[in-house]
């Protein structure tokens, strides 16, 4: 039995999310079907992050255990062959130790949130950005975002159904910058609460449009009350960009 | 009667092309329907470039004549409201003189061709790039592309059904550069022959993979024979990026 680390890109649009569910197609099930077609083995694909319905990934990480012997290029190419009907692609397959766990060994997760802040709706990138139909001030958003960096009780930015043991997390980075016609938010932490990045985006948008100031973000955080922060930004702007591991993983 | 210049973005995927045709939905017809719903006027939308089936636009330009009086923001927003079922968006509407013609007044057209040169297929950008499943040498492609810049008989890069009077065109720029995981080709000219940019891309890809050298491109151009150049690259990588006009337009 060998353990494989997979780096996976997907368009979350057609999926109910990463996790297998009864009510529709999931990225996990698409991958498990591809593994079965390749190796005739029923596996559970373990993902680093359970992205919600409509959330995309540029670098989700997963692991699988295979009895079938194959080289890394064959595993990647065969899975991609069997994934063809889906907007899911395996960027790389790497042999790892049996101790490696996509979720529990991860040391850092990087999310990207894309906002298109212009009056006309997106055409080429429809479904891939949050369309806010007026201009936002990226610099003000970046300034205010710094209130959230560090170790905090993030109850104000946590979904009701969040299953984490504690609302206390350490946010390593929260950078907001203009990228052409878009605003990009980069969020980096060891782990996140459910909806945390989307709640950051929905709150920082209030700053970008001038309704809130940096101090309002600080107060929302201190309130430890979900109702004190801004609304949850839509799934379509969110990307799981990267999952990092210790070098010896 | 007032003349409006429209800058239009679209995902070419679901369309038979810019031009109205009996066999499927066109961008032109989508715009004409939106104009009718807004103004109850039957107009012909004149486009600067008749993009083929599957070709995208970031900055197509079109003009329409309207009897209905409205301000520019209303024209843009109303057309976008009625375009909602389609991946077509009006970026701006501007009042212009009656002498302005989207096609005949254009002084420069800029096309972008996107190639994703990696083994795994695209997921998030499926249908928006040409997937070449091995790495290409962007620098070698750029060097070879310079053979095509200037005034030439471009018969070798012209589609059989091209209706231009002459195969002689002046290519102002043909730049090839790496952009992250992609290779971008920028092509600038007053006007292009049918399939010219896609035939450039298909030929430069031969250079990028090392099958051809710069001199082979020069020889293909000199042959004035379509069979001497490389194959036509797919529509899905091509974008009409910009159409420029004299400042007084």
What characteristics describe this protein?
249 residues, 2 domains, Alpha-Beta Plaits, 10-stranded mixed sheet, homodimer, 5 helices
Describe the protein.
Two copies of one chain form a homodimer. Chain A is α+β, with helices and mostly antiparallel strands and 249 residues long. Helix content of chain A is 22%, strand content 31%. The first copy, chain A, has helices spanning 27-39, 72-82, 138-145, 196-208, 214-223, and strands at 2-10, 46-47, 56-66, 88-96, 106-117, 130-132, 150-153, 168-179, 182-189, 238-245. In chain A, strands 1, 2, 3, 4, 5, 6, 7, 8, 9 and 10 form a ten-stranded mixed sheet that branches. In chain A, a hairpin with an 8-residue loop joins β2 and β3 (56-66). The radius of gyration of chain A is 19 Å and the shape is globular. The A-B interface holds A 9-11, 56, 58, 73, 76-77, 80, 84, 87-92, 118-124, 126, 128, 239 and B 9-11, 56, 58, 73, 76-77, 80, 84, 87-92, 118-124, 126, 128, 239.
Topology of chain A as a string of helices (H) and strands (E):
EHEEHEEEHEEEHHE
The CATH homologous superfamily of the largest domain in chain A is termed Pseudouridine synthase I, catalytic domain, C-terminal subdomain
The value of Rg of chain A in angstroms is: 19 Å
Assembly of the depicted chains: homodimer
Shape of chain A: globular
Category from helices, strands and their pairing of chain A: alpha+beta
CATH C-level of the largest domain in chain A = Alpha Beta
Q: How much beta of chain A, percentage-wise?
A: 25-35%
Number of β-strand runs of chain A: 10
Question: What is the arithmetic mean of pLDDT of chain A?
Answer: 96
* Total helical segments of chain A: 5
Q: Percent of residues of chain A in helical segments?
A: 10-25%
So, CATH architecture of the largest domain in chain A? 2-Layer Sandwich
Uncertain regions spanning at least 5 consecutive residues of chain A: none
Intertermini distance of chain A: 18 Å
The major sheet of chain A is characterized as: 10 strands, mixed
Chain pair sharing the greatest interface: A-B, 26 and 26 residues
